[in-house]
Amino acid sequence: MLGQRLRIVQAARLRAELIARYGQDGAFPPPHVLARADLDLPGRKGEYLQAVAEAALDGLLDGAARRGLDPGLAVQRVHQVKGLGPFAAELVVVRGANPPDALPSHERRLDAEIADRYGPGRTLAEVSEAWRPYRTWAAVHLRAQREQRTGKIAGR
After folding, report:
1. Residues whose CB falls within 8 Å of the CB of residue 147, separated by 6 or more in sequence, listed in order
2. What is the DSSP string of 67-111?
3. Exposure winner among 3, 32, 66, 78, fewest CB in 10 A?
4. Percent over 70 (pLDDT), the chain
5. Helix pair 135-150, 108-118: axis angle to 10 deg
6. Residues in CB range of 64: below 8 A, 6 or more apart
């Protein structure tokens, strides 16, 4: 959510500043710290980050609880947290609940990688059928490959 409507390099800078100010041992600050922090972030990012922290404290983002749900339902529930759009909600579920066969549908970079590797006009839904029951891991792999090749997230 720090990266919403920002360039990746700017979001990385915000993240580093939060870690430096509120984190411990180089780790991102835990929810109980963020919920009470005086966050000076652009736009409504501070409000949204605190809403996410509160949701985590309330157990709404608990990975074990999300694992017991259908990934689509888990995404719907996470999407109800203020500040988490469809893309962020999918990432929370994919990273936190770790479902092996969930497929993100709001991932522009993944869509671009599909077009690069499989040709223009091919869709993620179409090519990913062959990846079952491990579509999550195939998607993560393709995203990692894309970043390694392009360096866009790292700001190269």
Report:
1. 109, 153, 154
2. HTS-HHHHHHHHHTSTT--HHHHHHHHHHHT--TT---SS-HHHH
3. 32
4. 97
5. 80
6. none
